[in-house]
Amino acid sequence: MIKQVSIYTANTKGAMRKITKLLKDNGINLIALVTNDSAEFGMVRFLASDPEKALAALEDAGYMARITRVIGVRIDDECGGLDHLLEALYQSNIDVNYIYISYDRSAKSVIAVFDADGAAEIESSLKTRGFEVMNDRDMALND
């Protein structure tokens, strides 16, 4: 599993810029990022070069943030790569809460990042099906 930082923030002009500037000023590289919004608040989820440092910087700046564990899986960078993973999850009767993708520059491959209940069993199932499941050490290589 890999560490993801999640932030709740006001949905206002410049809100994302404040977050990215804070991370930049603290020397934290973004590896992947996804945002979801509502009328007043938004959720920002991201993978970072140093999740603990990102969390500390965000909390020091007054953000409500936390680290959660998510599953990262390498998928083929071709038509149907994500579908292949989703088919394996579907066949294993796994419900995905959310998913986003990132590109691993060092390995030149795509990483699907997702949240689902029963992570240890899911990782084992995916490994059995031939997928490469990422860990924090793998993500540090993306820095």
Count up the domains: 2
Strand proportion: 35-45%
Low-pLDDT runs:
none
Count every helix, treating DSSP H or I runs of 4 or more residues as helices.
5
Mean pLDDT: 91
**Helix-strand makeup class:** alpha+beta
Rg result: 16 Å
Which descriptor suits the 3D outline? globular
Question: Quick gist of this model?
Answer:
The chain is an alpha+beta fold and 143 residues long.
Features:
seven-stranded antiparallel beta sheet, alpha+beta, VC0802-like, 7 strands, 2 domains, 5 helices, 143 residues
What does the model show?
The model has no long low-confidence stretch (mean pLDDT 91). It contains five helices and seven strands, in the order βαββαβαββαβα. The protein folds into two domains: 68 residues, VC0802-like; 71 residues, 2-Layer Sandwich (VC0802-like). With 143 residues, it is an alpha+beta fold. 33% of the residues lie in helices and 39% in strands. Strands 1, 2, 3, 4, 5, 6 and 7 form a seven-stranded antiparallel β-sheet that branches.
Topology:
Layout: E1 2-10, H1 15-25, E2 30-37, E3 41-48, H2 51-60, E4 64-75, H3 81-91, E5 96-104, E6 109-116, H4 119-128, E7 132-133, H5 136-140
Antiparallel strand pairs: 1-3, 1-4, 2-3, 4-6, 4-7, 5-6
